[in-house]
Amino acid sequence: MSKRVNKKLKKELLGLIVLLAVIAAGYFYYGNFDFLNTDKEKIELINSEAVDVAELNNNQLNIIFFYVGQADCTLVKLNDKVMLIDAGNNNDGENISNYLKLLGITKINYLVGTHADEDHIGGLDEIVKDFEIEKLFMSEVGKDSENYKNVIEQANRKNLTIEYLKRGDIFELDGATCEIMMALKGEDVSDNDSSLVIELKYNKTTYLFMGDGEREVEEARNWNKVNVLKVGHHGSNTSSSNNFLNQILPDLAIIEVGKDNPYNLPSAKAISRLESIGAKIYRTDTNTSSFWLTSDGEKIEIKELKVNLDGN
């Protein structure tokens, strides 16, 4: 065999080894994520025309992502059970309370204050005052803030005990299972990263509510694939990292964010990362209105809800 042929064979063999190494690395990378996560069912997604009024269906899961300006407030209702996650800024509490009453809600089974920032718990004391609350869940970080103290004061008036959940805690919402995925605490943990992160599973559909959790939260665990993501920190670039998004692979991404906010949110980089995984993005700031999602556990329907609860 000539030296030229021998050299050519060695080159081809080396190329084949490199190719096999790349294939093996890719298999390990993607296969590892599939192993770490539960399979996500293929869900039928329906985008319907905008409506003025939410007529909650007791036979379905209802989730309303409210427009409360540069703040968060999300209602979850299944049958007669209700969970409210956050309640906007201080001036939003009364508007939120009034709208919940219009929906016929008198009792909130789970009231969640994801973390101590005003744009999440500012209106929470108003909700505690106006409704029967079965359970009040809050972060353990930021208890010395004025807004947190307001919630404590109102809870004490109603003899309501604040409960501090930890990662792995589970509670039921009449057919849906809610799990605390993260609840960081400690002196070095920021308010944002102390957010109570909730994963809700209903039949074949899965929903993830990130509060204001940032990269430290996203990198602290492995995540399940989900159908719907309530995007962390109003679409900030400090959240929705590539590694995190490639694990959860949401079909829908909801960003609760204020129109013309001073923080220039959502970040164009975060939007680009969400688009790169094929998520369909819904932003409350686009028409300063809310979004109403319904699901029977097999398919998901979402529609714009012309409701603006921004009290500013």
Short description:
This protein is an alpha/beta fold and 312 residues long. The chain has eight helices and 16 strands. The protein folds into two domains: 36 residues; 265 residues, Ribonuclease Z/Hydroxyacylglutathione hydrolase-like (Metallo-beta-lactamase, Chain A, 4-Layer Sandwich), CATH 3.60.15.
SSE layout:
Blueprint: H1 3-36, E1 44-51, E2 61-65, E3 74-78, E4 81-85, H2 93-102, E5 107-113, H3 118-121, H4 124-130, E6 132-138, H5 146-157, E7 162-163, E8 170-173, E9 176-182, E10 197-202, E11 205-209, H6 215-218, E12 228-230, H7 242-248, E13 252-255, H8 268-276, E14 280-283, E15 290-295, E16 299-305
Parallel strand pairs: 1-16, 4-5, 5-6, 6-7, 11-12, 12-13, 13-14
Antiparallel strand pairs: 2-3, 2-15, 3-4, 8-9, 9-10, 10-11, 15-16
Helix pairs in contact: 2-4, 4-5
